[in-house]
Amino acid sequence: MTPRILRVTAVGLLAALALLLGSGTASAHARLEGSDPADGASLDTAPQRVSLTFSDAMTADFSTLTVVGPGDVHYETGAVSAQDTTISIGLLPLGAAGTYQIGYRVVSADGHPVSGSVSFTLTTAGPAASTPTPTGTPAPAATSVAPAAPSTAAAPATPEGGGMPVWPWIVGAVVLVGGGVAVALRLGR
Ligand SMILES: [Cu+2]
To answer: Which of 62, 84, 132, 154 gives 107 a disulfide partner, CB atoms 3.0 to 4.6 angstroms apart?
Structure first.
């Protein structure tokens, strides 16, 4: 092996390493880092908007937010808006006191969908609770199945389990062995 080949193999090894290191960070899923209202918060005033902050920059495309209160009533209104790492949606006037669940489904920068929910408690009935609601009619059970999991049919999901390619390791091993041989040859001259 000539020094030129040695140099070429060294570049190859560095490229393989960069690919390995790079794939570790680039394929991280977006993580929920916070919300407003915070998960588990108790509020006596109804918020007019909810927002969620993630570990990655978010886009409104393919992001869905739902806010579901007592009786499986939805309160989200308007479109999801995104700014940097935060997505938010407006709320209709909240109704009964109780638990409200903020459900989200977003797509990570690496294309993987991420979903989950946080919840807050409204301790004082919101403005909408003062409007007369039908009483004495028990709500039919399970009219809406899984309200917190809206589907975005167009989410560009990439198959899970593709994982890290094996070939950079093979390239790296071959290059290491080749480099070792070349160094041994040079030293032996
Ligand atoms: Cu991912």
So the answer is: 62
